[in-house]
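Per your request, structure below.
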C-alpha cells in the first residue's frame, strides 16, 4: 500500500433512499478493487463486485479482527476514529479457530427447523402489535409502533431478556451503531450493555430459565465475560437489523405500488419478495471490514499485509455480473439468487433464518390488516438512518 493518501473516498451519498451511492456502479465497471480514504479517515481498499466481495469474505487470508467500523456520515475526520477493542465473546471480530468455538455453541440454536417452529410465537407478537396500532388515532410511526417492537420482543423471548428493560438496551444499542457517537459515548453505551447482560448471566446461573442465554451459561464452556459479549452481539443484532428491514421494506413497497400490487394479488410471492427486499435494500451500509494477513492479489491488485479491505455488500448485490436482469430494479417475483445481505463465509449472519421468519410474519400481516396503508408525509420528509451503521428509517409516519 502506498504512503500517499488515496485520491478517492468511499461513496456515502445516496441519490435515492433505496439505492446505494451511484458511484458504486462506475467502480464496479472500471475500478472494482480501489484504494480509498474511508469517511473516518482510515485508508485501505474498497471492493465492489459480487465475486470479489464473496472472495474476500470467504478467504482466511483476510482477518475479521478489525474493530467494528463506525465510519461514514457527514462529518469526516482527518484521522481514524479510535474504537475500543471488542469485548470477549464478540465472535463477529474473531477468526478460526477462536470463532469456531463460539459459532459451534450457537449454530444449533438458530437452525431453519428451530426458527420455523417459532412462527406461531412470532405471528402472535405481530398480531398483538397490529391490534395496538389499529387502535391508535391519526398517523402512526411504524418504527416505534410495530417494526421495532416485533423483533425486540422476539429476541428478548429467545435470550431471556426482560422486555420491560427495552428502553435501556434499545437506547444503548442505538448509541453503539450511531456513526457520529463519540468514542466516549460508544464506550459508555457498550459498557452499560455489557454490565446489564452480565447481571442477567449471574441471575441465570442461580435460577436458569428456558432460553438461549441460560443454556449458554449452563454449558460451562464460556466465561461470564464471554457470555456478556455473546449476549451483547445477539441482542443488538437481533432487533436492530430486522427492525430496520421491516420498516424500510414497508416504505420501499409503498413507493413501488406496482410491486406492492403484485404481492397483494399473489401472497405466495412473499418468500421471494423477502429475498428480493434483502438484496435490494442491503442495510449494512458501509460493508464488512477485513485485514490482510499477508501480501496477496485480488482482481489484479496487490494487497499488502496489514491493509484494511472493506467488502461492500450493497454494491455487490447490485452487480450486473451477478444478477444479469435489471439488478437496479425491485422485482418481488425475482427467482432466488444467493445474495450478500447476510454476508458470506464463516461470518454469514447467524440469525438469518429468524430474520426471514420475522419479516414474513410482519409484512404479510401488515399488508393484510391495512390494505390502504400509505405514508402520512411526503417521502422526502422521512428521516433516513444515514447516520447509522445499519441503514433504515428513524421514523415512518403511516396512515390508512
Amino acid at each position: 500500500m502506498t504512503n500517499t493518501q488515496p485520491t478517492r473516498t468511499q461513496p456515502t451519498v445516496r441519490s435515492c433512499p433505496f439505492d446505494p451511492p451511484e458511484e458504486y456502479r462506475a467502480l464496479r465497471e472500471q475500478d472494482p478493487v480501489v484504494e480509498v480514504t474511508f469517511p473516518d479517515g482510515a485508508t485501505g481498499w474498497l471492493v465492489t463486485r459480487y465475486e470479489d466481495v464473496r472472495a474476500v469474505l470467504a478467504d482466511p487470508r483476510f482477518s475479521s479482527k478489525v474493530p467494528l467500523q463506525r465510519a461514514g456520515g457527514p462529518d469526516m475526520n482527518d484521522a481514524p476514529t479510535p474504537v475500543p477493542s471488542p469485548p470477549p465473546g464478540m465472535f463477529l471480530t474473531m477468526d478460526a479457530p477462536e470463532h469456531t468455538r463460539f459459532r459451534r455453541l450457537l449454530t444449533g440454536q438458530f437452525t431453519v427447523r428451530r426458527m420455523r417452529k417459532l412462527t406461531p410465537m412470532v405471528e402472535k407478537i405481530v398480531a398483538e402489535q397490529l391490534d395496538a396500532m389499529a387502535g391508535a388515532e391519526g398517523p402512526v410511526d411504524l418504527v416505534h409502533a410495530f417494526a421495532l417492537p416485533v423483533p425486540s420482543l422476539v429476541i428478548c423471548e429467545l435470550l431471556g431478556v426482560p422486555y420491560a428493560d427495552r428502553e435501556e438496551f434499545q437506547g444503548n444499542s442505538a448509541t453503539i451503531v450511531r456513526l457520529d457517537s463519540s468514542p466516549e459515548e460508544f464506550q459508555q453505551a457498550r459498557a452499560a450493555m455489557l454490565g446489564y447482560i452480565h447481571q442477567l448471566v449471574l441471575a441465570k446461573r442461580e435460577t436458569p430459565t428456558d432460553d438461549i442465554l441460560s443454556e449458554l451459561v449452563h454449558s460451562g464452556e464460556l466465561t461470564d465475560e464471554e457470555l456478556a459479549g455473546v449476549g451483547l452481539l445477539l441482542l443488538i443484532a437481533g432487533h436492530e437489523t430486522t427492525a430496520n428491514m421491516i420498516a424500510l421494506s414497508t416504505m420501499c413497497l409503498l413507493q413501488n405500488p406496482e410491486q406492492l400490487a403484485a404481492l397483494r394479488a399473489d401472497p405466495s410471492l412473499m418468500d421471494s419478495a423477502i429475498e428480493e427486499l434483502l438484496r435490494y435494500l442491503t442495510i449494512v451500509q458501509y460493508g464488512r471490514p477485513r485485514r490482510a494477513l499477508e501480501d496477496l492479489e485480488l482482481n489484479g491488485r496487490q494487497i499488502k499485509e496489514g491493509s484494511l479491505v472493506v467488502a461492500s455488500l450493497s454494491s455487490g448485490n447490485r452487480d450486473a455480473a451477478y444478477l444479469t436482469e435489471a439488478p437496479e430494479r425491485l422485482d418481488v417475483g425475482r427467482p432466488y439468487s444467493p445474495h450478500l445481505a447476510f454476508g458470506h463465509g464463516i461470518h454469514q449472519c447467524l440469525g438469518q433464518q429468524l430474520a426471514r421468519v420475522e419479516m414474513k410474519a410482519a409484512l404479510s400481516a401488515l399488508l393484510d390488516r391495512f390494505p390502504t396503508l400509505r405514508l402520512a408525509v411526503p417521502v422526502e420528509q422521512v428521516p433516513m438512518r444515514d447516520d447509522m451503521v445499519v441503514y433504515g428509517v428513524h421514523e415512518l409516519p403511516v396512515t390508512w
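The mean pLDDT is 91.

Regards,
D.
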